[in-house]
Amino acid sequence: MKRLDDMSIRQDRLGAVDWSRLGRELDASGAAMIPGLLSADECQSLVALYTDDSHFRSRVVMARHGFGRGEYKYFSYPLPGLIQELRTRFYPHLAPIANRWSEAMGIETRYPADHADYLDRCHAAGQQRPTPLLLQYAAGDYNCLHQDLYGEHVFPLQMAILLSRPGVDFSGGEFVLTEQRPRMQTRPVVVPLQQGDAVIFAVHHRPVRGAKGIYRVTMRHGVSEVRAGHRHTAGIIFHDAT
Asked: Fe2OG dioxygenase domain location, by residue (predicted)?
């Protein structure tokens, strides 16, 4: 198994991503899948990091905070090479979508083309702690619906990558998104991820066109109860935390 710092996402995998399709799906539903983004070896290498606390700045036990059951760890800087690459190579493709959404919703914020420039903005505002994380669930664990905000500066899209094999490593534990439109009941969506699949989704709000123009839809995400086994996920959040 390769060391994570020696790994890089193969260019042909990024080149195979249909960014136009991804943008259309994000506009339409607030989420878009990228099948097979990581290999099984890359997934296993990330999972293996979880027991080595030298890679992380903190550990959160969800039950202590009312977040659900299970736990997660935030990576420390410098990030492992693969995590850093996911952050820096995806951001430039997502920034134009984020800017389009801001304009549609009448939000003044605009996002620079380069992720390092965006992190400079976060750090200048006191958001200096890295937010990429690994999550671990066992039987009976779940993650309540939530939003990963962390401070004044919030990049409106984030990514989750399933590292475990459904039906082999675990059962249950579906990734769930909800959408709350004004004067309507909440709509849930289950995203059918396999090992190595990524989903990009709205962190907080997304624009939706209605009869009277554009309005903001509130999005949340979580994980249903794991019925058996162990489930691991990597989360790539593009803003840092206070």
From this structure: 128-241
- Written out in words, the top-level CATH class of the domain with range 4-237 is mainly beta
pTM of the model as a whole: 0.94
Cα 115 from chain centroid (whole Å):
16
Structure tokens belonging to residue 167: 């039906």
Domain map (residue ranges) of the chain? 4-237
Give pLDDT tens digits for 95-138. Answer: 999 999 999 999 999 999 999 999 999 999 999 999 999 999 99
Taking a C-beta distance cutoff of 8 angstroms, is the pair 45, 2 a contact?
yes
Poorest-confidence range of 13-27, 106-120, 130-144, 149-163? Answer: 13-27
Give the helix/strand (H/E) hosting 97. helix 81-104
Beta-strand (E) ranges in 41-156? 56-61, 68-69, 71-75, 133-137, 142-146
Q: Distances from the Cα of 151 to the Cαs of 78, 109, 127, 161, 198, in angstroms?
A: 21, 14, 7, 23, 25
User: CB atoms < 10 A from the CB of 41, how many?
Assistant: 12
Sort 212 into a burial class: Cβ within 10 Å, 0-12 / 13-18 / 19+. Answer: exposed
- Decide: 62 and 70 in contact? Cβ < 8 Å: yes
